[in-house]
Amino acid sequence: MTTATAKSKTYRPGKIRERNHELILAAAEQEFALHGFRGATIQNIAERAELPKSNVLYYFSNKKKIYAAMFDDILARWNTLFSSVTVDDDPAEAIAAFIRTKVETSRTHPLASRLFAMEIIQGAPFLMTHLRTNMREWVRGRAGVMQQWIDQGRMAPVDPVQLIFLIWSSTQHYSDFQVQILMVENKAEYEKKDFDHAADFLTEVILRGCGLEPPKK
C-alpha cells in the first residue's frame, strides 16, 4: 500500500519534513476514504505512507489531528488560487481559473472531495469549528471582492455567496458522483478530455450567467 503520486516528486535536501507531511496526508486520504474515521488506524496510515508509525506520531500525536490536518490540506488545495484574487483582477479570468482549478482537482484528488462530502453529510463533527470560522470568513471575503466587481458594473448583479456554492457543487460533482456519471455516459472510466470538456462547459455557462465573456484559451 503506497502513495505513488506523492512519492513520484523530487524533494530537495532539507525538505524531509514537508515530504513526510505530504506522504502522511496522502496516505490518510486513502485510509479515511476506505475505512472512515472510526475504522482508520494510524498503523495503516503509516504503512500506506511507508513510514514507521513512530514517524507519523512525531508529526501528528493522534488520529484526530491527522484528520483535521488532512481537511486543512484539502480546503487549501481547493481555494488557494481564488484566495489571492483582488478587486483589481479581471472577473472573468479569475472566476474561470477558479472553476478550472476545481475541476482539475476533482480529477487529480477525487478521494478528497468524497471525504469532505461524507464529513458534511454526517453533520461535520470534525469540521464544525472550521466551517464557522475559517470557511465562513473565506466565503465572506471572496464574496466581498465579487460584490465590488458588481458595484463597479464589471459583472451582472448575481448573489456572490450563491455563486461560490454553485462553483463548489458543480465542480465537485465530477468526483463525488463519479459512478453515476460514468453509468449515464456509458463509460468505464474518466479520461482527461472528459474533465477538460466539463471545465469548458461550466466556465461557459457560469460566466455567461454572470454577464461575463469567457476568456479565450
Describe this structure in words.
The protein is mainly alpha-helical. 74% of the residues lie in helices and 0% in strands. It is built from 11 helices and no strands. It has helices spanning 4-7, 16-39, 42-49, 53-59, 63-83, 91-108, 110-121, 128-151, 160-176, 178-184, 192-209. The longest helix has 24 residues, at 16-39. The protein starts with a helix and ends in an 8-residue tail after the last helix. Mean pLDDT is 90; it is low at 1-9.
Share of residues in strands: under 5%
Q: Main beta sheet: strand number and arrangement? A: none
Mean pLDDT: 90
Helix and strand succession?
Answer: HHHHHHHHHHH
- Give the helix level as a range of percent: over 70%
Low-confidence stretches: 1-9
- What global shape is seen? globular
Rg, Å, rounded? 19 Å
CA distance, first residue to last residue: 39 Å
Blueprint of the fold:
Elements: H1 4-7, H2 16-39, H3 42-49, H4 53-59, H5 63-83, H6 91-108, H7 110-121, H8 128-151, H9 160-176, H10 178-184, H11 192-209
Summary keywords:
globular, 217 residues, mainly alpha
Q: Quick summary of this structure?
A:
By secondary structure, the chain is an all-alpha fold. It contains eleven helices and no strands.
